[in-house]
Amino acid sequence: MLPASCDVLVIGAGPAGSAAARVLAGAGREVVLIDSQDFPRDKTCGDGLVPDALAALARLGLKDRVMAEARPVRFAHCVGPRGGFVDVPGEMAVMPRRRLDELLCRGAVEAGARFEANVRFLAPLLDAEGRVCGARLQRGGREHELHARWVLLATGAAAGPLQAAGLCERRTPSSIALRGYVELPGVQEQLEGLHFIWHPRIRQGYGWIFPAGRDRYNLGVAILDSHDVQDGDGRRSMKNLNLRELFAEFCAVYPLARRLRDEGRWVSELKGAPLRCNLDGAAWSRPGLLAVGEAAGTTYAFTGEGIGKAMETGIAAADCLIDSDEDAAVRTRYAEKLRALLPRFQMYRKATSFNRWPWLVDLVIWRARRSPRLIQAFAGVLDESRMPGTVLSWRGIKRLILG
Ligand SMILES: Cc1cc2nc3c(=O)[nH]c(=O)nc-3n(C[C@H](O)[C@H](O)[C@H](O)COP(=O)(O)OP(=O)(O)OC[C@H]3O[C@@H](n4cnc5c(N)ncnc54)[C@H](O)[C@@H]3O)c2cc1C
Predict the structure, then answer these.
(1) Residue 40: what pLDDT?
(2) Predicted pLDDT of residue 226
(3) Atom of ligand 1 at shortest distance to CA of 121?
(4) Are residues 30 and 42 in the same domain?
(5) Which residue is closest in CA terms to ligand 1's atom 51?
(6) Does ligand 1 come within 6 angstroms of the Cβ of 220?
(7) 310 CB within 6 A, ligand 1
(8) Ligand 1 pocket: which of 244, 246, 307, 382 to mutate (most atoms <8 Å of CB)?
(9) Which of 153, 155, 239, 354 has CB 3.0 to 4.6 Å from 12, enough for a Cys bridge?
């Protein structure tokens, strides 16, 4: 039986929802965390944990637990169209989402949240003033009303829940990506680090290979958020993009991807999924409800990384609810926290246009190989000690190339 009421109902037990639930329950709130799927469940993802994800895990007190099982990674191996590469150092890791999300969800339960799997969010419940005061849920064909003082929507990139919650401003995702797992012994040395490959034949995107465990690799392609992705009428559209063709192109231009595809043992199918980026495409809140994680567009456009910011915004929303219970104060404070992240998101979005100039990517890589200062600048962007504008903007690139 589902409970009839709670303080905070968190919908979606991905990184955003579980992080929020852990913080809120730890502060003594009565939290119900639901997910439409049975746990542990898979999530189509590259499984890369970049520095902001590790920082959020530390804030949650779960970093050591994750790192005890994750595959640690010490650098991002960035490969340009002509094959030149540069290694950008940073503390990173890879952990399959099936396991990561299970650990995060357990972390929420451990702090006191009540977790209910196989429960689907259908629509918000509204009070007489139109404020969200709970949700209509469904489990096994039966509907249920759960009343809550606050609802957090952490349903990821799917447009359906956003529409049902009355937050959706754009159904189309910002980006799409596809990944699969392959096992191949004997290539570990060549596949240290997180491999990112940019090439004009991968159109507006990039390919990746991430070490996901003993002789196992997560590889895939992403089409980055791009103003170029338009249909015949100039509207944004993902209709004509074929990720499998793009994956074939990736394998054609990157020998290690080709080798994994042809000689490796596939341990999963290639599976695609949408991404929502740039903190846009949906309202961040309405009275009684806050959107957290990818539901609020928290994935970076240029890199497709979103696990860290999903947790970070889940934690931010929880902090706002702990500080105040008053609608206007909570929503204003939460909006301030998201707005503080906007410049970084905007720089990542602008950086996607560099893909149109492959020679520029080659030039930056060529220059970086000769400049410890430039590598340091990239490392600063990666660990967020530096604003991306200092390297991921025309002015920044010009300054760094000219020295
Ligand atoms: C192919 C691919 C590769 C990626 N690689 C990386 C990477 O390497 N590193 C990185 O940082 N990011 C990566 N991302 C982005 C990352 O996956 C997301 O940013 C992250 O999962 C967002 O977390 P979230 O908690 O907001 O949403 P999610 O992780 O999507 O969790 C949402 C949860 O809500 C549940 N849900 C959905 N609808 C309902 C409903 N109606 N009722 C109840 N529950 C519901 C879902 O079952 C799910 O468990 C990748 C994305 C893709 C598609």
Answers:
(1) 97
(2) 53
(3) 42
(4) yes
(5) 45
(6) yes
(7) yes
(8) 307
(9) 155
Ligand 1: nearest atom to the Cα of 308: 11
* Ligand 1 site, residue 46, Cβ cutoff 6 A: yes
- pTM attached to this predicted model: 0.95
- With a cut of 70, list the residues of the chain below it in pLDDT: 225-240, 390-392, 400-403
pLDDT score for 35: 98
Is there a single domain that holds both residue 315 and residue 270? no
Q: What is the domain range of residue 310?
A: 5-75+95-172+276-351
pLDDT at 398: 72
CATH number at residue 31: 3.50.50.60
| Two structure tokens written together for 144 | 């249920």
Distant-in-sequence, close-in-space partners of 19: CB < 8 Å, separation ≥ 6: 56, 60, 104, 108, 310, 311, 312, 314, 315, 318
Q: Is residue 12 part of a domain?
A: yes
The span from the CA of 96 to the CA of 93, in Å, is 10
For 196, which DSSP code?
E
pLDDT of 238:
60
Query: 296 CA distance to ligand 1 centroid (A)?
Result: 12
Identify the domain boundary among 260, 275, 290: 275
Per-residue pLDDT tens for 363-390? Answer: 889 999 998 988 998 999 999 998 877 6
Tell me, yes or no, whether 300 and 345 share the same domain. yes
